[in-house]
UniProtKB/TrEMBL annotation:
This is 26S proteasome non-ATPase regulatory subunit 9. Keywords: Chaperone, Coiled coil. GO terms for cellular component: cytoplasm; nucleus. Belongs to the proteasome subunit p27 family. Interacts with PSMC3. Part of a transient complex (modulator) containing PSMD9, PSMC6 and PSMC3 formed during the assembly of the 26S proteasome. InterPro entries: PDZ (IPR001478), PDZ_6 (IPR041489), PDZ_sf (IPR036034), PSMD9 (IPR035269). It comes from Glareola pratincola (Collared pratincole). Residues 9-46 form a coiled coil.
Length: 132
Protein backbone atom coordinates (compact mmCIF):
# COMPACT_ATOMS: atom_id res chain seq x y z
CA UNK A 1 0.00 0.00 0.00
CA UNK A 2 1.14 3.60 -0.59
CA UNK A 3 1.13 4.26 3.17
CA UNK A 4 3.59 1.41 3.75
CA UNK A 5 5.90 2.83 1.12
CA UNK A 6 5.80 6.25 2.76
CA UNK A 7 6.78 4.76 6.13
CA UNK A 8 9.76 3.01 4.51
CA UNK A 9 10.78 6.29 2.94
CA UNK A 10 10.53 8.10 6.28
CA UNK A 11 12.59 5.42 8.02
CA UNK A 12 15.18 5.62 5.26
CA UNK A 13 15.40 9.42 5.50
CA UNK A 14 15.81 9.13 9.25
CA UNK A 15 18.70 6.69 8.79
CA UNK A 16 20.34 8.99 6.25
CA UNK A 17 19.92 11.96 8.58
CA UNK A 18 21.44 10.04 11.48
CA UNK A 19 24.35 8.87 9.35
CA UNK A 20 24.98 12.43 8.18
CA UNK A 21 24.70 13.71 11.69
CA UNK A 22 27.26 11.19 12.95
CA UNK A 23 29.59 11.99 10.08
CA UNK A 24 29.26 15.69 10.82
CA UNK A 25 29.87 15.18 14.53
CA UNK A 26 33.03 13.19 13.72
CA UNK A 27 34.25 15.89 11.35
CA UNK A 28 33.62 18.52 14.02
CA UNK A 29 35.54 16.49 16.61
CA UNK A 30 38.43 16.00 14.20
CA UNK A 31 38.43 19.69 13.35
CA UNK A 32 38.38 20.67 17.01
CA UNK A 33 41.28 18.28 17.65
CA UNK A 34 43.29 19.74 14.77
CA UNK A 35 42.63 23.24 16.05
CA UNK A 36 43.56 22.28 19.58
CA UNK A 37 46.81 20.75 18.35
CA UNK A 38 47.65 23.80 16.24
CA UNK A 39 46.93 26.02 19.22
CA UNK A 40 49.06 23.87 21.54
CA UNK A 41 51.94 24.08 19.09
CA UNK A 42 51.59 27.84 18.77
CA UNK A 43 51.47 28.13 22.54
CA UNK A 44 54.58 26.05 23.07
CA UNK A 45 56.44 28.16 20.52
CA UNK A 46 55.22 31.31 22.20
CA UNK A 47 56.31 29.94 25.55
CA UNK A 48 59.86 29.42 24.38
CA UNK A 49 59.92 33.09 23.41
CA UNK A 50 59.68 35.62 26.21
CA UNK A 51 56.94 38.24 26.23
CA UNK A 52 57.90 41.63 24.86
CA UNK A 53 56.55 44.71 26.63
CA UNK A 54 57.51 47.43 24.17
CA UNK A 55 58.39 47.88 20.53
CA UNK A 56 61.11 50.04 19.04
CA UNK A 57 59.34 52.40 16.65
CA UNK A 58 62.18 54.75 15.81
CA UNK A 59 65.96 54.75 16.12
CA UNK A 60 67.78 58.03 15.61
CA UNK A 61 71.03 57.59 13.64
CA UNK A 62 74.05 58.20 15.86
CA UNK A 63 72.07 57.79 19.07
CA UNK A 64 73.14 55.32 21.77
CA UNK A 65 70.23 53.12 20.71
CA UNK A 66 71.38 52.97 17.10
CA UNK A 67 75.03 52.49 18.07
CA UNK A 68 74.00 49.55 20.24
CA UNK A 69 72.38 47.92 17.21
CA UNK A 70 68.75 48.34 18.17
CA UNK A 71 66.51 48.23 15.13
CA UNK A 72 63.04 49.54 14.38
CA UNK A 73 60.41 46.86 15.09
CA UNK A 74 62.62 45.12 17.65
CA UNK A 75 60.36 43.99 20.47
CA UNK A 76 61.90 44.69 23.85
CA UNK A 77 61.87 41.75 26.25
CA UNK A 78 64.29 42.99 28.85
CA UNK A 79 65.75 46.42 29.36
CA UNK A 80 68.25 46.27 32.19
CA UNK A 81 66.18 45.22 35.19
CA UNK A 82 62.85 45.88 33.44
CA UNK A 83 60.95 42.94 31.95
CA UNK A 84 57.37 42.04 31.16
CA UNK A 85 56.72 41.07 34.78
CA UNK A 86 57.58 44.42 36.32
CA UNK A 87 57.10 46.83 33.42
CA UNK A 88 54.40 49.42 34.13
CA UNK A 89 55.11 52.22 31.71
CA UNK A 90 57.90 53.84 29.77
CA UNK A 91 58.88 55.80 32.87
CA UNK A 92 60.36 52.49 34.15
CA UNK A 93 62.76 52.47 31.22
CA UNK A 94 63.55 56.17 31.61
CA UNK A 95 64.49 55.51 35.22
CA UNK A 96 66.74 52.59 34.33
CA UNK A 97 68.39 54.71 31.64
CA UNK A 98 69.03 57.58 34.04
CA UNK A 99 70.54 55.24 36.62
CA UNK A 100 72.77 53.60 34.04
CA UNK A 101 74.28 56.63 32.38
CA UNK A 102 77.67 55.65 30.98
CA UNK A 103 77.24 52.02 32.06
CA UNK A 104 76.36 49.20 29.72
CA UNK A 105 72.82 47.92 30.04
CA UNK A 106 71.80 44.46 28.98
CA UNK A 107 68.88 44.67 26.57
CA UNK A 108 67.13 41.65 25.08
CA UNK A 109 64.90 42.02 22.04
CA UNK A 110 62.91 39.77 19.76
CA UNK A 111 63.88 40.28 16.15
CA UNK A 112 62.08 38.21 13.50
CA UNK A 113 61.07 35.73 16.18
CA UNK A 114 64.60 35.28 17.58
CA UNK A 115 66.09 36.50 20.82
CA UNK A 116 68.87 39.03 20.30
CA UNK A 117 71.02 40.51 23.06
CA UNK A 118 72.03 44.12 22.68
CA UNK A 119 74.43 46.00 24.93
CA UNK A 120 73.30 49.57 25.34
CA UNK A 121 75.26 52.31 27.11
CA UNK A 122 73.05 55.32 27.85
CA UNK A 123 74.94 58.56 27.47
CA UNK A 124 74.13 62.16 26.81
CA UNK A 125 74.59 63.08 23.18
CA UNK A 126 73.92 66.24 21.21
CA UNK A 127 71.69 67.49 24.00
CA UNK A 128 68.98 65.02 23.13
CA UNK A 129 68.68 63.14 26.37
CA UNK A 130 70.26 59.80 27.13
CA UNK A 131 68.93 57.61 24.34
CA UNK A 132 67.81 60.05 21.71
Amino acid sequence: SPAGLQNDHKALMKQVEEALHQLHAREKEKHAKDEAEALAEAMSQAQSLPQAFAKVNAVTPGSPASISGLQVDDEIVEFGSVNVNNFQNLQNIATVVQHSEGRPLSVTVLRSGKKVHVGLTPKRWAGKGLLG
